[in-house]
Fold:
Amino acid sequence: MITLDPNIQELLEEVVNAFPTGTIDEATKRDAKGRLKILLEEFKVPADEAVRTVISYIARQRQIPEEAVAPVHAPLTKVSDLKPETWASLKVRVVRLWETRSDVLAQTGLVGDETGLVRFVVWKSGDFSRLIEGRCYLLRNVFVQEYGGRLEVSINRRSRVEPIDEDIRPPRSEISGAIVAIHRSSGLVQRCPECRAVIKGFCPKHGRVNAVDDLCAKIVVDDGVKACTVLLNADAIKNLTGIGLNEARDIATRALDRSAVLRELTKRIFGRYVKLEVKGGGEGRPFVALAAEFDKVREMKHDPKESGVKGSDGIKGKNGAREPAKRVLAAEIYRSTHTVETSGSKVLLLSGELCGRVFFVGTLLEKTRTAEGVWKLRLADPTGVFYAFAGKYQPEVVETLHETDVPAIVAVVGKLKVLEGKRRITFLRPECLAVVDFRTRDLWLAEAASRTLERLNKMENSDNTMSRLAKEVYGTSTAYARKAAEIAMKASLPKTEK
Ligand SMILES: [Zn+2]
Structure:
């Protein structure tokens, strides 16, 4: 490229910026300026070439290693082609920004082009104006490094950030829903330093090793239509809960028990609505979270095709996929007393679907312990009440109940059962239970109301076996479900306008 009347001062700046701060003294600057002038004016070399030539001349003179010198224009690279320990330039959109707790980083987040997503950090020393979520940029001279087993783009003082007017569309894989399960393997774990496998002092591949601590979680995120297994690493857990590796170690030390970390994580994330940026997944493998945050405003999606995982890598229809937990209001749980034998006994809901797992958020009104050591819980939402029973097969639930004062807002996942007798009573057998906040309760109410109406509309418009059976055994009682949905919808609305 031929640049007419090049501004030598600006080119000199480019030369100086290629070197670590403080390595270029005034004498070298004068020398560089002289050489630039000669190359441009006498030899008529293009500006880029002149800069490149002078940079490599200075590097040789001052014996500065090649890798310490930033390229003038690192090659424009696609995200999927990034390699560790190289310089690159990228045209990207900022997909997500999140809080940084670091003293040296100005921003961290996720950028992407049409080939993929990558994490980035902006160093404070770079003195850039802040990147804005959703905007597109040309990032010149960023350094690609591997951090925690993943690539990361480092925007440092050698980098240049230029807003651009292009429409770059990174592939989005977003999962949103409630956390309805946390796998027992989650929490403070030990890894083999060689292969990163989770071990207990001894690696099957590498024998006796000095295991390193790590924090991770395997969770199930469920929007009532699809359930996805997602792995959270230490960063994602810290973003969500404020608990990092150090805090996790403290918790374990204080309790003299590593599993105390899992209990603490459960308290903080179980039942909460989250929004996750993920990669991978499919073929029975879990997704890996690139970014995680609590979902503050949940937009209800009425079209099941639209909900859950967006993008191409959903797990729909895979064998062995976990059945989503249904959102069922108390009034409907209480009145759905008919069971159907399929693979095990399932409760037929008023709204015409068979129900295995339920995700419920409401008020724990009473907890009483029977002589047999079984806890009897009375749970309520604005539409009614029902019972749950937890015994020795749910030790975590029992432990949480010991610590919980009533009344409390709780999230609970479990299976519906029917107590046979003179009067049939439908109750919940909790698998996991945690105290949550009012906002989670309101989000759940809105969601449960929508899902109930969806089920009812489907039942009215279809003539499948379960719809017919529900109409037959419940008759006009199905109207209770619609009434409950209306009450819940109203109750979920904020009391005061902001
Ligand atoms: Zn190993």
In short: The longest helix spans residues 438-461. The two ends are 56 Å apart (CA to CA). Residues 192, 194-195, 197, 203, 205-206 surround zinc ion (CB under 6 Å). Residues 404 and 482 are 32 Å apart (CA to CA).
